[in-house]
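call fold(seq) -> tokens
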Amino acid sequence: MKYIFLVVFSLIVSFSSFAQDEFEMKSGDTTFIIKKYYLCILKRGPNKDLDSSALAKIHEGHLNHLSVLWEQGKICIAGPFGDDQDSRGIVIFNVSSIEEAEKLESEDPAVKAGRLVMEIRPWWGAKGSMLK
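ret:
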């Protein structure tokens, strides 16, 4: 059933109007509200030459920035990857445009310092989804 849901969901998203930010999708007795979010992939930035004191300050600012966005309801989820690759983590924004997500993430102290760079893309998900 989950596989069928994913296939149907993929087809609907592929052929739906991307001008809208939400639409309904029925699967059996369940109606899902599918919403556009903005997925930010944070990648290792060009500025690698900082001492441990500067790094600690930037990291603290980065975490504070994410906390404020969470409290404002601007992000749904955020976290680092569990390996040491160039992609460092993700943030899923709950905002009305990619420009707003870019503006908010550009204010992150780690992005400002060049420790991280961002790639933001539209991402569709069912409202109320959660990790288990």
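DSSP finds four helices and five strands in the chain.
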